[in-house]
Amino acid sequence: MRRVVITGAGTVNPLAQDLAGTLAAMRSGACGIGPLDIPDVERLSVRIGGQVRGWQAADHLDRAVIATADRFAQFALVAAAQAMAQSGLEVGEGADCGVILGTAGGGLQTSDDSYRAVYAEGKTRVHPLTVPKLMQNAGASHLSMAHGIRGPVFTVSTACASSNHAMGLAFQMVRAGALRAVLTGGSEAMLCFGGIKAWEGLRVMSATACRPFSATRDGMVQGEGAAVFVFEDRDSALARGAPILAEVAGFAMTSDAADLVAPSVDGAARAMQGALADAGLAPGEVGYINAHGTGTAANDRTESAAILRVFGPAPPPVSSTKAMHGHLIGATGAVELLACLLALREGVIPPTIGHQEDDPECRIDVVPNLARAARVEVALSNAFAFGGLNAVLALRRA
Amino acid sequence: MDLQQKVIAILARQAVLDVSDVTPDSTLESLGIDSLGLVEAIFAIEEAFDISVPFNANDPARSGFDMTSVASIVAAVEGLVAQKAA
């Protein structure tokens, strides 16, 4: 089996619109969550979110591309271009390369705009490219066209675990020797009236802030954006002198088979154990866990219990960077993998900001409010989705 | 149908029970209504009475909407309906 490394990373998210800015923001514990600036916000009860502010697609993309790409695809395109530039990957004929992206909502803003046009504004027609803009695979297809990637190109949609599932499959395909390199990660742009209105219905959203693991937490806050990585065969990467950001060491996915929305200790614990076993790692080797940490009562208690089950009473430091960038739903695991890169490469564990009070039901070290210096050899990144789907990646310092 | 009967009808439908099986001292637990069912029941109550119920599933106790029994839910809905009229 081949070894798999990350040779490029790019991102557009509420903290910054590039890798360096995002890592700096995570290091300093910055918060990208603020008042939402979207049409009809006055009719929402949730009015905060992690928006990508000042997004100027024209600064990065051709007009012809912008006209055919929903916001989620634009984010993916820009993040992928950054990752490709850093990696220096030569695609060549492109048949031995792939694109595997995660998204939950796909072109939801395109859907929202078209519904508003025909239902609310009484218009008789919508934009002619509404279908190719809203389709879930649009982001992956745009990436293949932008970079001449002609192998397997597809989208994985598993709600909040989408990008971890996508990156896990990318890892498996490169490890198995099926592909030389894969552009992988996730993209999401759900911060529109319909997208937030739907989430309001579940009554799990905070109107104030995302405070994962804090006793005072009162729900999740949505974000938007993308992160895209180049996962590459290690031998090929070494041969061409590519930058190696980290090694992807293991991956596991499990299903709770229990409840459509309530998380399960067992499913989460089995996914973490599976990722460690896949990587040939012992729990004691893990130096950092990037939690799913949504800031809901249900997730944070369940995830804490699962971590304690896998790692015993003194687990490694855990943080949820969602307090900084919000929950990017289908892109969240991808942006959170950046936090793992920060820990592995720079020895900085990003904090869980917004922490006010320990919760006796979350007996884990959540690196409250301030980043911490630590030498981290192995990091885990958790994602647990509605539908009971769990996906965990294990990364090793390169 | 008075307010209490309406609330009971909504809870009974959610619990897949007959209205006669739902009494003022029934609890959500005794009716077998889980967290997802509760969110659906609250939605139905909001639609039926044109009110907004302040309920956050992360901390039901702090929501200011007492759901310890059918009677307390009825009282809370009465309060919200009265607030709307005021």
From TrEMBL, chain A:
Keywords: Cell inner membrane, Cell membrane, Membrane, Nodulation, Transferase, Transmembrane, Transmembrane helix. It is found in: Cell inner membrane. InterPro entries: Beta-ketoacyl_synthase (IPR000794), Ketoacyl_synth_AS (IPR018201), Ketoacyl_synth_C (IPR014031), Ketoacyl_synth_N (IPR014030), PKS_Beta-ketoAc_synthase_dom (IPR020841), Thiolase-like (IPR016039). One of its GO terms (molecular function) is 3-oxoacyl-[acyl-carrier-protein] synthase activity. GO terms for biological process: fatty acid biosynthetic process. It comes from the Bacteria. SUPFAM superfamilies: Thiolase-like (SSF53901). Residues 1-397 form the Ketosynthase family 3 (KS3) domain. One of its GO terms (cellular component) is plasma membrane. Belongs to the thiolase-like superfamily. Beta-ketoacyl-ACP synthases family. Proposed to synthesize NOD factor fatty acyl chain. Involved in the synthesis of a highly unsaturated fatty acid moiety, which forms part of a lipo-oligosaccharide that is responsible for host specificity. This is Nodulation protein E. It comes from Paragemmobacter kunshanensis.
Automatic annotation (TrEMBL), chain B:
Keywords: Phosphopantetheine, Phosphoprotein. InterPro entries: ACP-like_sf, PP-bd_ACP, Ppantetheine_attach_site. Residues 1-81 form the Carrier domain. The keyword Metal-binding does not apply. The keyword Amino-acid biosynthesis does not apply. This is Acyl carrier protein. The lineage of its organism: Bacteria, Pseudomonadati, Pseudomonadota, Alphaproteobacteria, Rhodobacterales.
